[in-house]
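task queued by scheduler; priority normal; single chain, no ligands, no partner chains; default sampling; output format set to structure tokens
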Amino acid sequence: MHVCVVFWENVLNGVFLLAELKKAQTKNMPHRTRPMTALLVFTGLNAILVSTITPVYDFVCFLRFWERRRERLRQEREPTLLKSSESR
């Protein structure tokens, strides 16, 4: 029982010290926090990224590389398909 009480006293003291430290840091903060500006910048960057993802996706997905690769793979598979159909 005594260990539990000591434990919780230490926890409360730690919380109290953290609160005091945070309060001291906010008094001596060298800059102002601007949550609205941060929110607007975050939203603006997300909007820009979302609007640019479609052209990038289209560019990557419709490269001629994929068409050539698909054709090469089809040509490599064709002989094996013919062999398996002939063996039946």
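post-processing summary
- The chain has two domains: 1-31, 36-88.
- The longest helix spans residues 35-61.
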